[in-house]
Amino acid sequence: MITGGATGIGKATAQLFVQNGAKVVIADVSNQAENTIKELLNIGGEAIFVKTDVSKETDIKNLIEETVDHFGKLDNMVPIAGIGHPGTLIHEVTLDHWQQMLDINLTGVFLSNKYAITQMQNQGTGGTIVNVSSIMGDVGKTNQFSYNAAKAGVANLTRSLGVTYANQGIRVNAICPGFVDTPILSIADEEKRSLLISAHPIGRLGRAEEIARTILFLASEDLSFMVEANLIVDGGYTAQ
């Protein structure tokens, strides 16, 4: 199950999971997900789309129910759905803006984890969750107060869930990407984009498929001893 699976990192993750034999559920608010589903079916995958607003508890409950009705169980949850913003001074941040950022980027992850873990417990077969935090959950960035706060929340939520449910065979980890060349960066103009590129020692932005490969790795049995990790994949950004 991949929230935010219609485009960007979510779409790349869905494609990679299908290529490795997984049956995929894409949850998104965007009808672009329907085209993504068609692409997955065209490469021989099994996939369905459930329109979902991750900030709404009823939508997440419905998402889990439809997944189990269709595929019988839930093995892996990857909550990717999120929004960004170009940056705002704290005295200009409205409560509505703050709340929207937390509702989607943090509460949406909380709800996804809550109901995925509940389903995995009911199955009794364990499972994996790979949350998507950000390097912005680990370092500060000018004028990104609400985004930074939400992503830091995802990082610590992951740590707490990881140590709480490890003994039930449910592995919860997170990936913390640097800046990745996806539609969410469309809000950045060319000057800002150049600055972002120059901030990465590797000399470029990340690619969606690179993040997808790391998510698949975290979800795989290759990392069966890893829990509550926040794995940084950032082209060297945070090492400076």
TrEMBL record:
User: InterPro entries recorded for this chain?
Assistant: NAD(P)-bd_dom_sf, Sc_DH/Rdtase_CS, SDR_fam
Has the keyword Oxidoreductase been applied to this entry? yes
Q: By its UniProt entry, which PROSITE patterns does this protein fall under?
A: ADH_SHORT (PS00061)
- Keyword Metal-binding included in the entry's annotation: no
| Pfam families the record matches | adh_short_C2
Keyword tags? Oxidoreductase
Task: Please give the family membership noted in the entry.
Answer: Belongs to the short-chain dehydrogenases/reductases (SDR) family.
This one is known as SDR family oxidoreductase
